[in-house]
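Subgroup meeting minutes
Present: P.N., E.W., G.H.
Scribe: E.W.

1. P.N. recapped why we're keeping a running log of single-chain structure predictions: easier to compare across weeks, and new members can see raw inputs and outputs side by side.
2. G.H. added today's entry (591 aa).
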Amino acid sequence: MYKPGGTIAEALGRIQSKSYVLPAIQREFVWKPTQIERLFDSLMQGYPFGTFLFWKVEAKTTAAFKFYDFVLNYHERDNPHCPELGKLLHQTVTAVLDGQQRLTALNIGLRGSMALKQPNKWWTNPDAFPVRTLRLDLLSTRAADEEGLVYDFKFLTDEQAARSEQSHWFSVSEVLGMPDGPAMVTALRKGGLEGDQLEHAYATLDRLHRVVHSHNLVNYYEEETQDVERVLNIFIRLNSGGTVLSYSDLLLSIAVAQWKKIDARAEIHRLVDELNSIGAGFALSQDFVLKAGLMLADIASVGFKVENFTADNMAALEENWIGIRKALVRTVELAANFGLNGQTLRADSSLLPIAYYLYKRDAPANYVTHSKFAQDREAIRSWLIRSLLKASGIWGSGLDTLLTALRETIKTDGASAFPDKQVRQVMAQRGKSLTFEEAEIEDLLHLEYGDRRVFALLSLLFPFVDLRNQFHVDHIFPISRFKKNTLRKIGFDQDQIEILKRRVNEIPNLQLLEGAINIEKRATMPNEWLVSHKSSLDGQKHYREQHALGEIPDDLSGFELFFAARRERLRTALGKLLGGPNSEHTLSAPT
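Output recorded in log:
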């Protein structure tokens, strides 16, 4: 039987008093600002709010479980996770099994804030995460838009709200402590509203006040059992049938419930955050860490299946966690040493066989840098880059079967060195050959700037570049010189212009350049830049030979000849590197 749970304001009060809590089996908050805005619009329009599933945890059993608080001030970098509550002794609480996202959205909208990273700003920049709070434009008179939205809710900074002259952005959090009636009119007048604007704004604000304080919108079903197995089964049945909760979230929930000594949720989240902070930054997820756990702990299958998350398997994962954690950190450090990051690592799963190898070898802390491991690192790098370059996608369909087979091969043949040859044979047997046909090499030569394979391809062609520094993919001939008007004045016709604008972005016009040098180079023509960058003629010649540049024309009239000649040099180099089972692992310098 469903029970009435009161108003939104009352529910938020229970969150604030830690009466409503989140069990460890719950996932993280995942809603975006637009979803919160839509929820508030739905409430204002009187749409059904949905029911909740609560678990009444009696005081005698609260100490046996781990609980978390609701997110209040979400910060994508510094505060993305639900905070721990610690042990709740001698206190009866209500654990939310279904409805966390909605309740957290209300908590953030009415009490907190959101700070998401701005596009084109570095994660390390404190200004990249402006704090926004939910606002409602009390003067908006729009009809329902294409998505059926009527009320104009937006997450805005104080500066954004103040800049808008046509709107009156009311801070939604103020409604929680605001009396209704005359007090609202007084507040609106203090905000400069009079006449028709005051009347319209009051009607909108009064509706928001009634939605929060007067309407009994919270209805719930309460499970009273104290048997965690039953609660876990309820949670699984509730969430495994749909797509709202990802399967890895569900399996992480099971791991959390079964680890005895380590807090699985906190530990996995800490590890994900640490891995993503390595080098220039990665974008790995808890899915990656969970899959790695299954693989490195030698659990029979690496698939995301409930039967793989048995108590015995989770005990094995917990027992070996310290070594698994160390291997994953070492693996991502190695990937960063290869110059990879979140933008250039095309398939996260490609790191898993490397992690298993480093785990089995118990790779020391200096593995990534010491010269005695250089040959081993190069074998791994060559194999990894090849797998990332395959257009057909090595790391797509049949992933679990492939990973299991590679694990067995590494276990058998990888005692003292990375078994590159054996691994490639196993992949080829499964239709995932790392040998490239002529047509595939031709396709690689047409990769365009922005493709995630470009960095990998250039790093394979030019392995002498020290990728531990922050390197950019640079246009040899600056793209800014290829504007239509500029090319037309030089004498190119429309067909030639279209060809040039495409070719300026393709591999033969791209190179790896250290970030600071690339910024300094900007729109400088290559010959002019090379003279300023390398003062001696020998230095200039060596640079051209290393980067397979050949003769560089002084102006754009010779660009097509330069492009064609460099493309042929790169084609030859790629044929040696990728074209057959006996292709070379390294390339000192294309000529």
